[in-house]
Here is the input.
Amino acid sequence: MTVTDLECGIAYELSGVSRTYSLGGHEVRAVRELDLVVDAGEPVVVVGPSGSGKTTLLQLLGGLDRPTAGSVRFEGRDLAQMRDRELSGLRLQTFGFVFQQFNLIPTLTAAQNVEVALAPRGVSHRRDAAIRLLDSVGLASRADHVPGRLSGGEQQRVAIARALANEPHVLLADEPTGNLDSETGAEIIDLLLGLTGDGKRTVVVVTHDAGIAARARRVIRMQDGRVLDGSADAQAVGTGSRTGGSG
Ligand SMILES: Nc1ncnc2c1ncn2[C@@H]1O[C@H](COP(=O)(O)OP(=O)(O)O)[C@@H](O)[C@H]1O
Ligand SMILES: [Mg+2]
Here is the structure.
C-alpha cells in the first residue's frame, strides 16, 4: 500500500527498471536494471555523459514513458501499472516539467505565459497568481515583458514559474541550463534545487555538466544506462580524489 512509502517519506522507489528501445532489429538498452530510491522533498541531480540514459530515466519518473521491465513506484503506486488516463492525470496534477528549450509563447508576456498554465486548473485571479509565481523565481519585475525582451536565464525562470503552476509534488528538469552560460546556469540550478518548499516537493535535475552536479547535496551518476553511486550522498565534486573503498 501507499501508506508505507508515504510514512517513510519516499517519493520514488525504482527496482529492476529497464527501458529498451527497438531500432530496426537491434536493441538499445537506454536504462538497465536500475534500482533507486529518492526521498520525498529531496533535491537531486542526475549527471552523466550524453547517451547515458538520463532523459530516459526522467521520462520514466515523470510518467511520460513506461519501463520495459521493473517497477517505478511513485508515492507507493507503480507508474508502470497505471492506465494512460491515470498517468496523464498525474502529469497534469502532480508533476512539473522544465526543459532545455524554454518553449514560451513569444506573443505573450511572462505573466500571461504563466497564466496559460493556471487556466486549466480553474484558478481565479490568475494574474495575481502568476505574479506570485514569478516572484517565487525572482522575476516579478519582468512580468509584463514578452520573452524576446528577456535574457535566457529570465526566460528559463518564466518556464520554471509555469512549471510550478500546478503546485507539483515533483519538479523534473532535463538539461535546464543547456542554453545558458555557466554563471546563469549555476543560478538556475540553485533556484531549482531550492524549490523543494521545505521538503514538500521533490526536485530532480538532469545534466551532463559535472560542475553543475557539484552544487547538489545528492548526485546520482549514470553511465551506460546504470546508476554508478545513486545511494551515496554526493561528495564534493571537483578535482579531488575519491575514496572508493569502505562505503
Ligand atoms: N526513442 C528512442 N529510440 C531509440 N533509441 C533511443 C531513443 N531515445 C533514446 N535512445 C537511446 O537511448 C540511450 C540513452 O538516451 P538518453 O536517455 O536520451 O540519454 P541522455 O539523456 O543521457 O543523453 C542512447 O543510446 C539513445 O540513443
Ligand atoms: Mg538527455
Notes: Residues 152-163 form the longest helix (12 residues). The mean pLDDT is 90. Residues 104 and 155 are 8 Å apart (CA to CA).
